[in-house]
């Protein structure tokens, strides 16, 4: 029987050595594989073609021999030590590099340094992870021969864009202090304690400009710099009663003792008039500047200020008019009306609040409120009439969880509350009419201009035709040229007017589709939404819902809380 064994050669690879002997079981590829599996060389690369060559040559040698005779020795290299190999792939965005290692077959494993050198040769220059290089080298040494292992070994760094310049208030505004009252030692809050620091002193820093930042540069794994976008700059605005500090151009200081107020990109300081209560004894207040009232504004009293009005207590059946914001720590309370027998819009409320800025209060009832910006009522708003250019928000600043019951609200953008309407079915009307009427009026005026332009254009066109029909001896070329020029000018004017009308109509549709009312908890029956000529009302109770206009209809859609 032929003898077969494995023998290392001078290349540190392994040969199959066959000593042919005629007779016995024939040697097969399977028996050679079994020989390899039982040897110390089982992890080496197997050259199957050489195994087949060796067996074929063995057959040729054995064929002419007699039983028991031996033939010449046959030797073929069938096992080879193959070192681990590596492939480096740089992702298309050059933000990461992947190393794929084909594990060694009896040959040399790759060290972390070998992987690093291969990556550098492939163009990876930055963002290496030392931990991943070591981990990959160890993992590849442990895996089965000729298996593959891949891992991210380098990662680019995304550029971080700079931050915009911003204005940081250095003092609290009246609204911030009232909506966040002072907490006492026993845990309760005194809604009437506004604190003394609401008034700033001359030279006191009140706002600071935090400069923009340039951002942080990034890079790809091939070391290409990724440049950040710097932040946007703003100018620190010194409003009335303030000035830029001579010591630091990023600091705004007060020029007077007064009430600080945030404006766009800055602050202003109003002269202030401070009083404990407004009663018959004090009389009405009409002040150029801001007014701070520690306590209440009693029934029948009037407070008018060109700046802000800040009230630590309640407003009861009184009138407030402010050129800025109105902040009421307590409630706005009017006399109760029988709104079931009288339409809400025909009721004359005993309390009348008007502000060109925003209005803040804990709660309101039976109130007439007009506002140039937003209205924020923290707890509930009952049976009131509102005409506001901005948003109505009822609830905490972070969540609209208050109650809106009854009343007639004309809003500018949206209405938010936790509960809208009541189980008793109190009618609650929400109308986005004012801006719609304004846009429709603008469209109507443009249409009137277009009609005038159209009439003029037709007249000029008829005049041109008449002049062109004159006989040669009566032709008036100079006059014709002037009329043609007038016609072209008038036609151009009409074209511009038509474009302006199209834009206004687009703005109208866009606005009507953008307004909505939202109840984060419940919306009861009797809530009516009016958007221009389209209106509808709820006829049952809904869970969290949004009511809005689209496709010439009013829709009520559920709010899915995620």
Question: Can you describe this structure?
Answer:
With 562 residues, the protein is α/β, with parallel strands linked by helices. It contains seven helices and 39 strands. The strands form seven sheets. Strands 17, 19, 21, 22, 24, 26, 28, 30, 31, 33, 35, 38 and 39 form a 13-stranded mixed sheet that branches. It has a ten-stranded mixed sheet with strand order 18-20-23-25-27-29-32-34-36-37. A four-stranded antiparallel sheet has the order 1-2-4-3. A hairpin with a 6-residue loop joins strand 13 (242-244) and strand 14. Helix 6 (433-468) runs antiparallel to helix 7.
Q: How big is the Rg?
A: 44 Å
Helicity range: 10-25%
| Average pLDDT metric | 89
First-to-last CA distance: 79 Å
Query: Which stretches of 5+ consecutive residues score pLDDT under 50?
Result: 190-197
Could you tell me the number of beta strands?
39
How would you sum up the global shape? elongated
The major pleated sheet works out as: 13 strands, mixed
Keywords:
562 residues, alpha/beta, 13-stranded mixed β-sheet, 10-stranded mixed β-sheet, 7 helices, elongated
Summarize the structure.
This protein is an alpha/beta fold. Strand 13 (242-244) and strand 14 (251-254) form a beta hairpin.
What's the arrangement of secondary structure elements?
Elements: E1 3-8, E2 14-19, H1 29-37, E3 45-46, H2 48-62, E4 74-80, E5 85-90, E6 96-102, H3 112-121, H4 130-142, E7 148-155, E8 166-169, H5 174-178, E9 205-210, E10 218-219, E11 225-226, E12 237-238, E13 242-244, E14 251-254, E15 259-263, E16 266-270, E17 272-275, E18 285-287, E19 290-293, E20 302-305, E21 309-311, E22 315-316, E23 319-322, E24 326-333, E25 351-355, E26 359-365, E27 367-371, E28 375-382, E29 385-388, E30 392-394, E31 403-405, E32 407-410, E33 414-420, E34 428-431, H6 433-468, H7 477-514, E35 516-523, E36 527-531, E37 534-537, E38 545-550, E39 553-558
Parallel strand pairs: 12-16, 17-19, 18-20, 19-21, 20-23, 21-24, 22-24, 23-25, 24-26, 25-27, 26-28, 27-29, 28-30, 28-31, 29-32, 30-33, 31-33, 32-34, 33-35, 34-36
Antiparallel strand pairs: 1-2, 2-4, 3-4, 5-6, 6-7, 8-9, 9-14, 10-11, 13-14, 15-16, 35-38, 36-37, 38-39
Helix pairs in contact: 3-4, 6-7
GO biological process, one term: cell morphogenesis
Pfam family, one: FapA_N
Domain Flagellar Assembly Protein A N-terminal region: 86-265
């Amino acid at each position: 029987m032929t003898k077969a064994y494995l023998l290392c050669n001078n290349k540190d690879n392994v040969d199959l050595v066959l000593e042919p002997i005629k007779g016995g079981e024939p040697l097969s590829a399977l028996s050679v594989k079994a020989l390899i599996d039982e040897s110390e060389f089982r992890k080496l690369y197997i050259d199957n073609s050489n195994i087949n060559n060796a067996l074929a040559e063995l057959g040729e040698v054995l064929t002419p021999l007699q039983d028991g005779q031996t033939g010449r020795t046959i030797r073929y290299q069938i096992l080879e030590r193959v070192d681990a190999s590596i492939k480096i792939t740089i992702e298309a965005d050059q933000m990461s590099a992947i190393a794929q290692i084909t594990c060694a077959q009896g040959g040399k494993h790759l060290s972390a340094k070998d992987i690093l050198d291969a990556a550098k040769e492939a163009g990876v220059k930055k963002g290496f992870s030392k931990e991943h290089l070591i981990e990959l080298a160890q993992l590849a040494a442990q895996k089965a021969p000729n298996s593959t292992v891949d891992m991210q070994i380098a990662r680019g760094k995304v550029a971080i864009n700079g931050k915009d310049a911003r204005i940081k208030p250095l003092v609290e505004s009246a609204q911030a202090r009232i909506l966040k009252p002072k907490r006492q030692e026993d845990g309760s809050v005194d809604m009437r304690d506004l604190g003394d620091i609401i008034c700033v002193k001359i030279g006191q820093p009140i706002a600071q400009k935090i400069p923009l930042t340039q951002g942080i540069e990034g890079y790809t794994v091939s070391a290409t710099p990724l440049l950040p976008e710097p932040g946007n700059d703003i100018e620190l605005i010194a409003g009335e009663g303030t000035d830029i500090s001579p010591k630091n151009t990023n600091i705004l200081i007060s020029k007077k003792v007064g009430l600080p107020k945030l404006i766009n990109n800055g602050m202003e300081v109003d002269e202030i008039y401070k009083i404990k209560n407004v009663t018959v004894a004090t009389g009405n207040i009409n002040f150029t500047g801001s007014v701070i009232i520690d306590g209440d504004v009693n029934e029948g009293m009037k407070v008018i200020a060109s700046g802000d009005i800040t009230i630590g207590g309640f407003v009861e059946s009184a009138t407030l008019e402010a050129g800025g914001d109105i902040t009421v720590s307590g409630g706005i309370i009017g006399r109760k009306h029988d709104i079931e027998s009288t339409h809400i819009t025909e009721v004359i409320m005993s309390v009348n609040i008007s502000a060109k800025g925003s209005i803040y209060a804990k709660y309101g009832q039976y109130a007439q409120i007009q506002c140039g910006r937003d209205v924020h009522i923290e707890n509930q708003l009952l049976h009131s009439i509102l005409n506001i250019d901005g948003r109505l928000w009822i609830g905490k600043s972070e969540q609209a969880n208050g109650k809106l019951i009854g009343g007639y609200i004309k809003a500018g953008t949206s209405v938010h509350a936790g509960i809208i309407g009541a189980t008793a079915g109190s009618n609650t009307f929400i109308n986005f009419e004012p801006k719609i009427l304004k846009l429709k009026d603008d469209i109507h005026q443009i249409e009137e201009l277009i009609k005038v332009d159209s009439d003029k254009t037709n007249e000029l066109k008829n005049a041109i035709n008449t002049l062109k029909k004159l006989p040669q001896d009566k032709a008036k070329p100079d006059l014709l040229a002037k009329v043609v020029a007038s016609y072209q000018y008038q036609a151009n004017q009409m074209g511009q007017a038509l474009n302006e009308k199209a834009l206004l109509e687009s703005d109208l549709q866009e606005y009507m589709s953008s307004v909505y009312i939202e109840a984060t908890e419940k919306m009861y029956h009797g809530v009516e939404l009016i958007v221009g000529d389209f209106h509808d009302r709820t006829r049952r109770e809904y869970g969290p819902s949004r009511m809005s206009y689209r496709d010439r209809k009013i829709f009520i859609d559920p709010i899915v809380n995620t």
